Amino acid sequence: SQIRILQSNCIGCGTCVQLCPFEALSLVDAQAFVDHNRCVVCGSCVPVCPADAIVDDSLPDDVMPGDSMVDWSIPDEPDVKSIVKGNETSTFSGICVYAEHTDGALVPSVAEVIGAARQLTEGTGLPVSAVLLGSEIGHLTGELLELGVDEVWLVDSPNLQPYAEDAEARCMSELLAELKPAIVLGSGTRRGRSIFPRVAARLNTGLCADCISLSLDQDTGNLVVTRPAYGGSIVAKIVIPHQRPQMATIKEHVFRPASKVSAPSGTVRDMSSQIRVSKTVLEILEIVKGRADPANLLQADTIVAVGRGIKKAENLPLIYEFAGAIGASVGATRAAVDLGWIHPSHQIGQTGSIVKPRVYFACGISGALQHTVGMEEAETIVAINSDPNAPIFDLATYGIVGDLLEVIPAFMETLKAEKQ
Ligand code: FAD
């Protein structure tokens, strides 16, 4: 399959040349020319051509730009980017949530993103929709409606196979340009981080990644997001005032998941026949599953976390023994990780996991902001630190000033005595 130029249609406007992500198009004698050594047949050039002069041979014969199935022409606006320019922001409304799924199930963070969207729209009357893209995923619509979504926008296509993220991003861009939500939210998962920048670039709009809070500006209705910036030394407030949709990914485990509604009243809008879904340019050779949470922190009821105060890696077995005795998972600060004492999957904080256990033991941890953002929502915090002025004590429910290498063995002696 390849991209072809219909010379009789080409008007030499150069729009495709500017937008080709692979620099595979150029103008030769005022006509578009494809360098097939560079072209990956991503299909981005097809919809942008105002003269229907570009053909993607990989499409079925009965689907061509300009067909009745999809109207690629943009009335009164030859530049595709202007479909989503902010000077017409009032034509965009509502909040759309990206419904990520894997192995036939929604990922848990979708409920958090819907929770964030519902919290934002509370009392405003703004609708919350969900964009659900994939192959044979219609069964997930019910769950989205149960989470309080007003409308599910579904595109079900065999081209949307797992990890076909280029095809998914193209499909999502078309859908959003068509349905025009004012805000698009997703989760800061690996997939969210892959899809959202591609979509934002295609729609020529702004994206704020890994947000930790969201609100609507009372006067303008603009989305206001906050996220750590400059290495965590400040928390920045960011708005996207002129472009639509306003896109953001939110950090996992920060927002409360949406609760199920007792009588779902939302509807499903099947857009599968209206949105063109091109094939992926990727070839998936093998899917090797890893454990999403190898340190088992996200679901842990109790966490024993260690910091630089354990002094050396040789003291870690004591922590594991204590954690094992009370059925806890082991977490760590970045300092302990950076020193090579423990695997990065154990890291808690701004650049690690955000956890909400019932009990959190902070052992030899000073309480730096970058760590505490990841554990401050624990129900009970027990801090063991030899420095009575350590900031972690400001957060702790119970504070023990002392050497953890003495305090933890004493805890374990007490536990053993109680068991006997
Ligand atoms: P320290 O700050 O060195 O504290 C060690 C503590 O142990 C001290 O309070 C000391 O009094 C106590 N202590 C010493 N000996 C004993 C003993 N025998 N018994 C009891 N207590 C003892 N950090 C994270 O944790 N997670 C993150 O995700 C993260 N992200 C970051 C992102 C950025 C961009 C930056 C710049 C930093 C980040 N950090 C993160 C690092 C963070 O700023 C701190 O440096 C780190 O959390 C400190 O780890 P700590 O408490 O183990 O070490």
From TrEMBL:
Keywords: Iron, Iron-sulfur, Metal-binding. GO terms for biological process: fatty acid beta-oxidation using acyl-CoA dehydrogenase. GO terms for molecular function: electron transfer activity; flavin adenine dinucleotide binding; iron-sulfur cluster binding; metal ion binding. Residues 1-30, 31-59 form the 4Fe-4S ferredoxin-type domain. Belongs to the ETF alpha-subunit/FixB family. PANTHER family: ELECTRON TRANSFER FLAVOPROTEIN ALPHA (PTHR43153), ELECTRON TRANSFER FLAVOPROTEIN SUBUNIT ALPHA, MITOCHONDRIAL (PTHR43153:SF1). This is 4Fe-4S ferredoxin-type domain-containing protein. It comes from Paenibacillus tyrfis.
